[in-house]
Amino acid sequence: MTPPRHHPSERAIAIRYQQRSAEVKALQRQCYALATLRLRAAVDANGTGTGLAVVSDIDETIIDNTAVMAHAMTLGEHGDGFETWKLWEREGTPHLLPGAADFFRLADRLGVTVFYVSDRFEENKLATIATLSRLGLPQVRADRVLLFGPPKAERRAAVERDHRVVLHLGDTLHDFHGCFAGATLDEQHRLAEDHADRFGEDWIVFPNAAHGTWMEAELRPWEVPKPR
């Protein structure tokens, strides 16, 4: 059975909320405020930042790409328009989410290693490095920017061989654990319950109203009781 497709107006509302609402900006600041507390606590407990790492997604976690979402919508593209997205990776001008600059500069200052783990296209790696560098982010090097190829779980495992990852930042659940990759929506809910103790501790989830497997889910409206 073909899953239901969302109406274009739903896409517009999602992007409008993600791009223009003060609430999303407040939530993003809140995520980085919490991440800062957790980072300082981890460094204090370790006595130093040496050997510790932060693993972060890039898009809608560090940088705002809502401009290309809105552009793709005007073109009538549904879901992921890969060619448009590749062009954005090469030539787009995203900006940092509120709180991102201060958090990553703090991590760098404390001696914590930063890894940028994203499913951006490997063919655009130099462009992604240039974008992150232009935005003033620290530790932007080829060996710290790990893009699409091996699954994210494998890339995170490679980081964990030489570092203790004290924080994972992302906007979708597969940014945190391989069990979420390819899971159905019902499975994701169950797995989120299984890992409930991680959220707000070493897993910090950023809001993204415009992307996710949930976007094709059927709504469950209230069934009004019949008069007796």
Automatic annotation (TrEMBL):
Domain of life: Bacteria
Protein keywords: Signal
Keyword Signal appears in the UniProt entry: yes
Bilayer-crossing regions: none
Protein name: 5'-nucleotidase
Lineage: Bacteria, Pseudomonadati, Pseudomonadota, Alphaproteobacteria, Rhodobacterales
